[in-house]
Amino acid sequence: MNIQIIQAKSALHKLKPGRLPFPYDLNIYRGCMHKCIYCYALYSHKYMESDDYYETIFVKENIAEVLDKELSKIKEKGTINLGGVCDSYQPLEKKFELMRDVLAVLIKHKWPTNISTKSALILRDLDLWKQLSEVASVNIAFTVTTTNDDIAKQIESGASSSTSRLEAASIIKKETSATVGIHLMPIIPYITDHKESLHTLYKFAYDHDFDYIMPGMMYLRGQTRKVFFQNIRQTHPHLYDKLNRMYQDREYKNEYRTHLYKYIGQLQKQYPLTYAAKNTHKQEKLF
After folding, report:
1. pLDDT tens-digit profile of 24-40?
2. pLDDT of res. 286
3. Dihedral (C-alpha) 252, 256, 258, 260: value to the nearest 10 degrees?
4. Domain parsing of the chain, residue ranges
5. Are the C-beta atoms of residues 63 and 5 closer than 8 Å to each other?
6. DSSP helix/strand/coil, 62
7. CA distances from 93 to 57, 75, 266 (A)
8. Please, are residues 198 and 247 in contact by the beta-carbon 8 Å criterion?
9. pLDDT at position 41
10. Contact (Cβ atoms closer than 8 angstroms) between residue 163 and residue 171
């Protein structure tokens, strides 16, 4: 593991309007130790002049200080998404504790915030998330691709178990005023698409009063496609040809998608949850 401590010159990344449901992205790290084989953010390391997204992690040591200065100058409060190209609560956060300082700044400015994580480490900062959710709009999502912890370990080897993520989500829902949801994505054909797992997730979310579940089938592009199939060849060799066909044959893929979302539609009727959090991206005028 190669850990690089760096000094950030800026904190917020302004997103193009309409691309995502929030105007700002904030990454306190670059690179991620969760090692998800389907990670869409692998491309981002080229901007750090590195090609080892999983093993070379850049730590923005001064990120909270820079963020504080930037928020003081913004005239409209637009939701900040924490971790567009990394997980803010990846294992290194246990050591560096950057999130506690960042949350203190967000509380100070009463800033609307969105986060998606695969880590139960977020519970360490439960006190701060509770404070922030009382003064600003907060959405906390947990990415859960499967309820099978063994499968999750194969495809997200550095992340918390699915069981612990769901437990953390239920605690945050009880203890804070944040909206809480599940990012059921990516759904990987033949690996995480088992009906029993999907049903269990929807039932758990409904029974624990979560606000939404956002499902999404896996898409593969660029370097992500290469890394994914390299891993599948090692962990699920019997599925390699089927998955390869799935992501080369558009008609075959569309037929699969139709059947998948038909079943998800049935689950949403049985457990009426919305597709996404509401009102986490509206801008608030400061002056």
Report:
1. 999 999 999 999 999 99
2. 32
3. -170
4. 7-277
5. no
6. coil
7. 11, 30, 39
8. no
9. 87
10. no
Q: What is the pLDDT of residue 48?
A: 66
Query: Among 3.30.750.24, 3.30.110.30, 3.40.190.10, 3.20.20.70, what is the CATH number of 7-277?
Result: 3.20.20.70
- Give the CB-side neighbour count of residue 25, counting CA atoms within 13 A: 17
pLDDT of 287 reads: 25
Which H or E run includes 29? strand 29-30
Contacts of 169 (CB under 8 A, 6+ apart): 140, 142, 180, 182, 208, 210
The span from the CA of 226 to the CA of 137, in Å, is 38
DSSP state of 5: E
pLDDT at 278: 65
Question: Hey, what amino acid is at 154?
Answer: Q
The b-or-e profile of 111-127 (16+ CB within 10 A means b, else e) is bbbbbbbbbbbbbbbee
- Assigned token pair, 14: 């302004």
Pair 61, 118: CB distance under 8 Å:
no
Q: Report, as ranges of residue numbers, the positions in the chain whose pLDDT lies below 50.
A: 280-287
- Closest Cα partner for 159 from 117, 204, 124, 187? 117
Q: pTM to 2 decimals?
A: 0.92
CB-based contacts of 16, cutoff 8 Å, min separation 6 = none
For tokens 């389907």, what's the residue? 38
Pair of tokens at residue 272: 């009426």
Cα distances (angstroms) measured from residue 82 to each of 20, 248, 284: 13, 33, 18
Distance, CA of 198 to CA of 70 (rounded, Å): 41
- Per the structure block, which two tokens stand in for 79? 């939701």
Give the span between the Cα atoms of 42 and 12, in whole angstroms: 20
